[in-house]
Amino acid sequence: MIEHVPAVPAEVERAPRPPAPAGSAPGADGLPPAARPGPNTDEAGPPTSARSRPDTLVATAVVLGGWWRVLRRLLVSAARSVGRRWSRSLQLRVAVTTVVVSGAVVLIIGLFLIDQITDGVLRAKRTAAIAQVDTAMASASGTLGGTDFADVQGIANAVTNLKSELAFNGTDAGLYRVVIQSDVPLESLADVFDADPVPPKLKALVEQGRPAMQYARIRAARTGPLVPGLVVGEPIQGRGGLFEIYYLFPLNVEQDTIALVQRTVLLSGLGLVLFVAMIAVLVTRQVVGPVRVAARTAARVAGGDLSQRIRVRGSDDIARLGQAFNEMAGSLQRQIQRLEQLSRLQRRFTSDVSHELRTPLTTIRMAAEVLHARRGNFPPQLARSAELLQAELDRFEVLLADLLEISRYDAGVARLEAEDIDLRSVVTRVVDAQRTLATRHGCEIITRLPDDRVSVEIDSRRIERILRNLLGNAVDHGSGHPVIVTVAADHAAAAVTVRDHGVGLRPGEAGFVFDRFWRGDPSRSRLTGGTGLGLAISLEDARLHGGWLEAWGQREGGAQFRLTLPLRVGQPLSSSPLPLEPADALRSSS
Amino acid sequence: MKPRVLVVDDDSALAEMLGIVLRADGFEPAFVPDGNRAVTAFRDTKPDIVLLDLMLPGLSGLDVCRAIRAESGVPIIMLTAKSDTVDVVLGLESGADDYVVKPFKPKELVARMRARLRHHDDIASESLTIGPPDSPVSIDVAGHQVRRDGNTIALTPLEFDLLVALARKPRQVFTREVLLEQVWGYRHAADTRLVNVHVQRLRSKVERDPEKPEIVLTVRGVGYKAGPP
Question: Do B107 and B136 belong together in one domain?
Fold first, then answer.
């Protein structure tokens, strides 16, 4: 029987190839190089022309290099924008992923289908071919079996007869051509035998007396083009030589069938992938659309518009998301309204307490004044009582005012009424007002003001209060040493420092001085009778301006407070025109 | 003759104490404890000055203030427990001339009252003209009259004082502090909101377009001055 050529690669044996393009490696299609038609016409062309234009090639390379840079930049920016879209768009990701996955599945299925169909078609062809060859061989061995290679004319006749007998026998396997060759080189018989090229491996097997078959490129007619085909080779032993009979079955029809199947599978696969991609885009749009609406609405709610809601339609999962979101926004709105209500009540309470406390205090105050004015007529103890009443009422009043002020900050109702003012005039005013008190304590206040106007947007009432507090403290703790007030400004900020040379602050105390009711040294008596809320209020006043109020202190080295204010309300502060630590600080203890 | 004072306050202890202090300082006080009766009492007593508590039962202090202002330019001083901007500005906008925050010292209150009563005595014969030439504002200081385009403009005594103070030195810029001292009689720095609110009230009466003032001009960052005569 016919055996397969074992050394032939599977694809050569099973899949007939499409016509090889010109210039492919010699022998790759199974043909000996000498048998190629016109080897020096087609193939010689391109190398010759390439070698003749080296300069043009260099120029072309340079131009191409420029283009490549431009192209690369375009590609990089395109890749970046795609990357951004990729990370931002769920829809894109889902669509692309779907296309990739379904494409891979369709590819695998398509390849499997094509493989199966090709295999089936070729197997049928092979079976039919073998059957035909068997039939043909019966008559061939009858005709050639007894021929002697010595009888040249007999061989010629027998071969010619056999050819005409076998040639173009249309049967189930379709048309085939017979090529008869012999291993005996007889010049006189060159015309009788055929010169058609036969795959060398197949020929080698047949020459050893073994029938074999192989897929190869053949000519369907003596002078036709090369087409894919199946070559079945059978040896017939004559006397003095071996006849090799090759049956060439062209596979054009099968090739066409397989090509059609490939096209169909490819097209339907592409269509399927597109269809799936479209479905993915539509489905994700249904999901992504409401999610985007929810995101936008959430952003608006976060931005403060608590009345924003999502329009909910239907009762699916997306609608439930919308409902849940709306419920959340609703409960948020209710909570905030409740807190606002509480805050309003708190403010109202502060205001009411203020009024309720202040009215009787006014009466007491006036009564005390009347008593105080007449104290000259009272016995000494009564007179002293009237004085104490008066003095303590002053303290009580200041404390009440401070408490109410800080409660206003706590309630968040403090408002800035800023106007453009020369900071120097504010400082001068406060210093002048405090000078009497300072002189009484034997303390000198020295001001260091810049020559130019320091134009700052401030609420002068609050800034005056801060400065009053700082100066009061400095005089209070200055131990009679001079207090130095410095003003400076740069392009973005203005600063005031108040420096005293008193007992100063212990390490770590600079962080506490702004705490409510904090006292540096509980045993030390206070000269100016502060409430303990002054610096806390000052800090809030500074913050309301977007400014800083900071303290520096050194044991026995005095203290310095620095107020830094932005020149324009709302501008952020980054630095202060004056240092917090004064230049005359005691180096040794810091 | 003793100046008459109408005290509108619901707190009887405070009213009584005010009575003691005011009588001692040479005033003749009358009292009304609620808002509803305040306007009637005002018509009956014809006071020279009104002390008005802002938180009243019945008609609120602000409403009483507006009602009195609608029929008279008599000085009104608010007694308020609230020094918050909103409360103060609301009171001033409803027509009060000045305010004292509880708890006040009697001397402070009396000083405020005297400042508001003072100007009636020392008026010399004087006539001033300010504003744009095509529509000037003429002020007859002695006759206490302001005319523009032939019409008499009704100003409260305080608004009149403010306008006269500015008109006497037309080219000079007045800071709010200086105006507080000259018009309100504050001897040291006080609330500049008083000036702002009353300038607005004055403008709404004398200016053709209060948004584009020609008579009382703002000098940004400094204060106010009278428009060119």
Answer: no
Same domain for B144 and B191?
yes
Q: What ipTM was predicted for this assembly?
A: 0.78
Q: Judge if B133 and B200 occupy the same domain.
A: yes
Nearest to B103 among A358, A370, A460 (CB): A358
Q: Does domain A416-566 have CATH number 3.40.50.720?
A: no
**Least CB-CB distance to A363: which of B13, B81, B82?**
B13
CB contact under 8 A, A420 and B221: yes
Domains in chain A: boundaries: 3-16+54-256, 306-414, 416-566
Query: Hey, are the CB atoms on A460 and B191 less than 8 Å from each other?
Result: no
Do B47 and B77 belong together in one domain? yes
| SS3 (DSSP) at A302 | helix
Hey, are the CB atoms on B103 and A397 less than 8 Å from each other?
A: yes
Which of B14, B24, B193 lies at the smallest CB-CB distance from A359?
A: B14
A 10 A CB-CB count for A109 gives 13
How close is the nearest chain B Cα to the Cα of A355, in Å? 5
Please count the residue pairs, one from chain A and one from chain B, whose beta carbons lie less than 8 angstroms apart: 70
- Report residue A584 CA to chain centroid gap: 54
* Nearest neighbour of A370 by CB, restricted to B21, B55, B103: B21
Q: Which of B75, B93, B118 is the last residue of a domain?
A: B118
Start-to-end Cα distance in chain B:
39
Q: Smallest Cα–Cα separation from B148: which of B133, B170, B169?
A: B133
Task: Check CB contact under 8 Å for B102 and A369.
Answer: no
Which helix (H) or strand (E) covers residue B148, if one does? strand B145-148
CA distance A399 to chain B (A): 12
Boundary of a domain, candidates B70, B86, B118: B118
Chain B CB contacts of A426 under 8 Å are: none
Q: Which of B53, B85, B105 to mutate to test the interface with A (most CBs of A within 10 A)?
A: B105
CATH number at residue B11: 3.40.50.2300
Residue B89 and residue B53 share a domain:
yes
CATH code, A306-414: 1.10.287.130
Q: Which residues in chain B are closer than 8 Å to A464, comparing Cβ atoms? A: 189
Q: Do domains A306-414 and A416-566 have the same CATH topology?
A: no
* pLDDT in single tens digits along all 590 residues of chain A: 454 544 333 333 333 334 434 433 343 343 343 333 433 434 333 443 444 455 666 666 667 777 888 888 889 998 888 888 888 877 888 888 888 999 999 999 999 999 999 999 889 888 888 888 888 888 777 777 777 777 777 777 777 777 777 665 544 445 677 787 777 666 666 666 776 777 888 888 888 888 888 888 887 776 777 888 888 888 887 777 788 888 888 888 888 888 998 899 999 999 999 998 898 888 888 888 888 888 888 888 888 888 888 888 888 887 888 888 889 889 988 998 998 888 778 777 766 776 678 888 899 999 998 899 889 999 999 999 999 998 888 888 888 888 878 877 877 777 788 888 899 999 998 999 888 888 888 889 999 999 999 999 998 889 999 999 999 888 888 888 899 999 999 998 999 999 998 888 888 888 888 888 877 665 555 555 567 888 889 999 999 999 999 999 888 888 899 999 999 988 888 889 999 888 887 664 44
Nearest-neighbour CA in chain B from A287: distance (Å): 51
Yes or no: say if A537 and A407 are a contact pair by the CB < 8 Å rule: no
The answer on B88 and B59 residing in a single domain is yes
B12 and B109 housed in the same domain = yes
**Structural domain harbouring B41:** 4-118
For chain B, state the CA radius of gyration: 18
Are residues B45 and B146 located together in one domain of the fold? no
- 3-class secondary-structure state, position B188: coil
Residues B108/B100, Cβ–Cβ less than 8 Å: yes
For A187-244, the DSSP string reads: GGGTTTS------HHHHHHHHTT--EEEEEEEESSTTS-EEEEEEEEEEEEEBTEEEE
Q: Which residues of A touch B103 (CB under 8 A)?
A: 358, 361-362, 364-365, 397
Strands A3-4 and A419-422 come out as unpaired
What CATH number does residue B207 fall under? Answer: 1.10.10.10
Q: How far is B88 from chain A (nearest CA, A)?
A: 13
CA distance A435 to chain B (A): 14
Domain count, chain B: 2
